[in-house]
Amino acid sequence: MEIERVQEIASLSNLKGTIPSEFIRLEKEQPATTTIQGVVLEVPVIDLSNPDHQSLVASVSEASKDWGIFQVVNHGIPSELIAKLQQVGKEFFELPQEEKEVIAKPIGYEGVEGYGTKLQKEVEGKKGWVDHLFHRVWPPSAINYHFWPKNPPSYRDTNEQYTQSLIPVADKLLGLLSEGLGLEDGEVKQGLGGEDLTYMLKINYYPPCPCPDLALGVVPHTDMSSITILVPNEVQGLQVFKDDHWYNVAYIPNALIIHIGDQIEILSNGKYKSVYHRTTVNKDKTRMSWPMFLEPPPEFEVGPIPKLITQDNPPKYKTKKFKDYVYCKLNKLPQ
CB under 8 Å, gap of 24 or more: what pairs does 299-305 form? Predict the structure, then answer.
């Protein structure tokens, strides 16, 4: 049987000191030649405990317009809970391969949930140096526990606790984004499905790679979500495209990294920008990340918020069902 999982390929590659050709990026994409070296991008860092509400609205709004990415500190999620989230995710990926395959995406399955490697149509047959696990964590009606690891035994409880801590942070961020557009604080959330907004967790596992200058973990992309709330581990890897160059994003312990996704760009009619980013890999260390994608329900239609549309600001995006948006994006079809 052909080895499909990057974690297994990495074990062989690290013995040989080379990687299979399908992981070697084209020269114009290789991290060695395209990264601005020695400069770590200080993306905006926002203190969510700031008592000056208008200042908080302004800083989130500016970061979302100018960068499409920011980090938040003093967000209220205990650092011990973030450490537990990371620990149980790491333990799952360190299980024997056959145990992980129990919750693999079934052959022919149309959804994204489950353990897997390939997510979207691969351009020119090139692959990313990453395995992943996807499963929805909220609302309860959207959860399919089949795709949640049974081991380690504390996996479910830890992820449920983390989700409950994250929801108020997400609501606060969506409220601030809404006010930054001159709207009431609940209007952006309503434009994404309100209480039916779905929380999809992904765990990315990037094993050590003997040729990190030639490979990428995840290729350049913007997120399909409304916003993505990401917990990284301490291994450098996230890069953002800014002013025509790729820069490393600084790691801040216990901060959450917030990406503006495509649905917020659409809702805001382009005022907020979804962030173009990619992931590099490390020669000696495993990098992991835990992005939570806040997604509209599949049948929900997302388009520019009508209050933002004027004669001088006509709609720049189509209104369409989220599931249709996802289909086009994953299959590299025009929106």
Answer: 299/323, 300/192, 300/193, 300/196, 302/191, 302/192, 302/263, 302/266, 302/267, 303/266, 303/267, 304/266, 304/267, 304/268, 304/269, 305/181, 305/183, 305/187, 305/188, 305/191, 305/267, 305/268, 305/269
Task: List the catalytic residue out of 75, 127, 223, 271.
Answer: 223
Indicate which residue of 172, 221, 273, 323 is catalytic: 221
Describe the strand order of the beta sheet including 277-279 as a list of residue ranges: 35-41, 245-249, 238-242, 277-279, 218-221
Would you call 321 a catalytic residue per the annotation?
no
pLDDT of 178 reads: 98
Catalytic residue among 202, 242, 259, 271: 202
Quickly state the pLDDT bin for 11 (edges 50, 70, 90).
confident
Place of tokens 């990495």: 10
247 or 14, greater pLDDT:
247
Active-site residue, 221 included: yes
Residue from 324, 261, 327 nearest 112 by CA: 327
Bridge partners for 302 per DSSP: 320
45-47 vs 69-73, strand pairing mode: parallel
